[in-house]
Amino acid sequence: MFNQNKNTPAGYWLLTVGSYRILVHRRGSFAALALIAALIVTAGLSLVWGVEDLSLVSVFFNAAGLGDPMHVFLIQELRMPRLIAGLATGFALGVAGCLLQTLARNRLATPGIIGIDDGATAFAVASIVAVPTSLAPSALALSGAAVAAALAFGLSGAAGSRGYRFIVVGIGVGAMFGALTNFMLARAHIDSANLAYPWTVGSLNARPPEAVWVLMAGLLVCVPCAKYLARALNVLRFSDAVAQGLGINLRRVRIYTLVVTVILTALGVAVVGPVGLIALAAPEVARHLAGHQGVAVMGAGLAGALLMLVADWAGRSLFAPIEIPVGVIMAAVGGPYLLWILLRQPSRRTE
Q: Which is deepest, 77, 160, 190, 212, by most CB within 10 Å?
């Protein structure tokens, strides 16, 4: 139960569970509830509205396999899988962006900007058009993300996990993998290139269910790990000397955080493709709603899922029957947002 006494810090609730006591941040809790409520409303609208509008009551019956067979097919085979894929990928990319931004102490350090998205995309495309294998694109995407992260982390040096140095090296790594992707698509047969196209722009249309299940399994493992790392990352926002003085093993925390980020990014890209601006915007939304308290891992995940659903719904509804991929919608919105970040903090300290 929640208690409040004179020893409880301002802005917190004291949650007592048996012999355990947990401090719960009030504004962060309200922010999470608001994001969950917005997610529920957006998910309902995405199932109801589209080229074929349905009532909310019919959606429940159609989801259970009852009603008009065409509407049952629309909900069970098209909109529901798309909704699940959007929720999972948005949550994964939001958490990955939060972890990497906190690790690098820079709001621009996201998987898309430092090349992890491009590495995952290049390997996923290669599994289809260049060296077709029995491995699923999700497995190759994980390998590509790991290679890109290792290159960015290694080439930027021991201190490269901080500031603009890590970002600049990551941009170079991403450009290299982006060029490789374009080369493979240019040399591929037209049918293979069309099959690989969704992995280059970001789309939730007809996503492979196996990749979605793998992503959900990865979330079950990585999200608790991210929450566990958040406490150390919260200290890591200060200088290295302060973090070490508080008993934080910097090398171990950085490596573990990078591993979790790579897994979440790779599995997300294997489903939806490169929608890196979700990882840029979602943590900022979560920090703003929570009052910049701590490392908002869950808030960033919820905000990422919400942004993904809104962008996907807009892409398939605003210009219906023409569908705009979710990656294009996020680029149109996220591009000005990135410029706003750059112009708003021109004097940010670099290393």
A: 212
